[in-house]
């Protein structure tokens, strides 16, 4: 995981990722996987594993490696890295587009049109007292479209990865599923898909919620007189200063954008790397001796 993604997670959620001090508890991991395995595929997997133990039939027609698919493997090694490069370009274009929209002059014009910037005899001020409804209205007029565009990229990555997965699965089944033993890995993979899909659905649906939470935390209810500035540009620079604490960016919105882009880029990369790693593992297959090892332990 890249450091930019770690920083973005900390900023978007307010929590840091804990570095694992040792290996995860294998019992807990397998327990979670077992609970997530769909019932029909659990039955199918059990039947295939039992059939694989039948002498002379369980590995009939298999070579040294079971469930290995050379064609699907080559497809995996080519298509997922290519997909990662494609989305690196898309995310760069997305970032560049919104950097332009959150530039000081463009943002100032937009806020003046929305009457968020007001002027009286004392100067210019930000016309918001920080009520819940005002924060929501301001969110929808400023970053809502950006968050929606980012979510579309996450959906697009997931859809493309699933499309590659479907095509590879067809090749895998055609090329490697022969004996009962060769059906074990495909059954395990199919049985865990619902668990996998639910995990990524939850991740995707939380993106917009995290964006709004971080956004709303920058606006506190105003007490007394609203602060004034000599120019509208000064007012705009001070909005969302919590997103730009050291003044690196021209506006606070650019700071928010950079953090959110780093977060979305990390999520997109995580999805791609998950499917790439998953299929790199499955399509290697396994040796007959590995299954015999589990059989010997069970006896």
Strand arrangement within the widest β-sheet reads: 1-4
Percent strand: under 5%
Shape: elongated
SSE order:
HHHEHHEEHHHHHHEH
Structurally, how many domains make up the residues? 1
Helix coverage percent: 55-70%
Count of strand segments: 4
Query: End-to-end span in angstroms?
Result: 41 Å
Q: Please give the largest β-sheet.
A: 2 strands, antiparallel
Which descriptors apply to this entry?
single chain; 299 residues; mainly alpha; two-stranded antiparallel sheet; 12 helices; 68% helix; 4% strand
Give the structure's gist in a few sentences:
The chain has helices at about 5-15, 25-35, 40-50, 70-100, 105-115, 130-140, 145-175, 185-190, 195-215, 230-240, 250-280, 290-299, and strands at about 65, 115-120, 125, 285. By secondary structure, it is mostly helical.
What does this protein structure show overall?
The chain is mainly alpha-helical and 299 residues long. It has one domain. The protein has 12 helices and 4 strands. The strands form 2 sheets. Strands 1-4 form a two-stranded antiparallel sheet. Strands 2-3 form a two-stranded antiparallel ribbon. α1 crosses α11, α3 runs antiparallel to α8 and α4 runs antiparallel to α7. It starts with a helix and ends with a helix. The model has no long low-confidence stretch (mean pLDDT 88).
Annotate the secondary structure layout.
Layout: H1 3-13, H2 26-36, H3 39-52, E1 65-66, H4 70-101, H5 104-113, E2 117-120, E3 123-126, H6 132-142, H7 144-176, H8 184-191, H9 193-216, H10 232-238, H11 252-282, E4 286-287, H12 288-298
Antiparallel strand pairs: 1-4, 2-3
Helix pairs in contact: 1-11, 3-8, 4-7, 4-11, 5-10, 7-9, 7-11, 9-11
């Amino acid at each position: 995981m890249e450091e930019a993604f770690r920083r973005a997670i900390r900023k978007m959620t307010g929590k840091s990722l804990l570095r694992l001090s040792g290996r995860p508890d294998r019992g807990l991991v397998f327990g979670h996987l077992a609970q997530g395995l769909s019932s029909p595929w659990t039955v199918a997997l059990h039947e295939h594993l039992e059939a694989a133990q039948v002498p002379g039939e369980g590995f009939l027609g298999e070579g040294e490696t079971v469930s290995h698919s050379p064609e699907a493997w080559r497809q995996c090694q080519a298509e997922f890295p290519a997909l990662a490069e494609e989305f690196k370009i898309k995310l760069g274009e997305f970032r560049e587009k919104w950097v332009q929209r959150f530039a000081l002059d463009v943002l100032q014009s937009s806020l003046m049109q929305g009457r968020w910037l007001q002027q009286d005899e004392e100067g210019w001020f930000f016309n918001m007292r920080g009520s819940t409804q005002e924060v929501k209205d301001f969110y929808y007029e400023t970053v809502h479209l950006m968050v929606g565009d980012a979510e579309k990229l996450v959906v697009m990555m997931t859809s493309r990865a699933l499309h590659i997965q479907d095509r590879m699965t067809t090749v895998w089944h055609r090329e490697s599923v022969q004996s009962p033993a060769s059906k074990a890995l495909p059954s395990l993979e199919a049985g865990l898909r619902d668990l996998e899909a639910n995990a990524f659905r939850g991740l995707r649906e939380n993106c917009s919620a995290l964006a709004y939470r971080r956004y709303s935390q920058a606006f506190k209810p105003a007490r007394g007189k609203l602060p004034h500035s000599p120019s509208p540009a000064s007012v705009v620079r001070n909005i969302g200063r919590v997103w730009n604490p050291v003044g690196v960016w021209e506006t606070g919105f650019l700071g928010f954008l950079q953090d959110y882009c780093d977060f979305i880029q990390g999520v997109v990369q995580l999805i791609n790397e998950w499917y790439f790693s998953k299929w790199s593992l499955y399509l290697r297959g396994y040796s007959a001796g590995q299954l015999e090892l589990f059989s010997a332990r069970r006896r």
